[in-house]
């Protein structure tokens, strides 16, 4: 039950993450996500079997943490009004949405939790929400395609390095799997530190 509960929170969080991408593109002039019906919080529109169900289950069973993703919200970078930084802004919108969620629930825990004002069930749920959204934000900022961090990085790099982007993109799925199952444990201390910083809970 704990696994299913965490996956449910993960699904809601990745849906908000993807919708944030779509609205960022929309406000910058691209309506691709709107035309494809992706500017909605309906999970069925966003979920995929591998990233939303299989990977979270495997990471939970293998390491006790949960990572996953939804179908990327489509956008056309050529429609964005800001051609220089538009792709980076759209990419950053997803992790920023997760950080915002973590801050809302985390600060509630920090300032209202010690007073006993919050029900114990809400405290437990809030801790899971904060933890998962911190994981999502940090994971998506890793500069491996198609994660958001890669789009932010490639927006900073000079155009002459475009071939490097294409090379990395060809092996992106393999690189992500290697990172999740072999390197993610190196990132987990950062997740715990950010969680403690926001919530005040060690």
UniProtKB/TrEMBL annotation:
TM stretches of this protein: 7-29, 49-69, 89-109, 121-142, 171-195
Keywords: Cell membrane, Hydrolase, Membrane, Metal-binding, Metalloprotease, Protease, Transmembrane, Transmembrane helix, Zinc
Boundaries of every Peptidase M50 domain copy: 7-111, 124-182
Subcellular location as annotated: Cell membrane
InterPro entries: Metallopeptidase_M50B, Peptidase_M50, Rip2-like
GO cellular component terms listed in the entry, alphabetical order: plasma membrane
GO molecular function terms noted in the UniProt entry: metal ion binding; metallopeptidase activity
Topological category with respect to the lipid bilayer: Multi-pass membrane protein
Main location: membrane
Entry annotated with the keyword Nucleotide-binding: no
Keyword Transmembrane: yes
Top-level taxon of the source organism: Bacteria
Alphabetical GO biological process terms: proteolysis
Cofactor(s) the protein needs: Zn(2+)
PANTHER family: ZINC METALLOPROTEASE MJ0611-RELATED, ZINC METALLOPROTEASE YWHC-RELATED
Protein name listed in UniProt: Site-2 protease family protein
Native source organism of the sequence: Candidatus Zambryskibacteria bacterium CG_4_9_14_3_um_filter_40_16
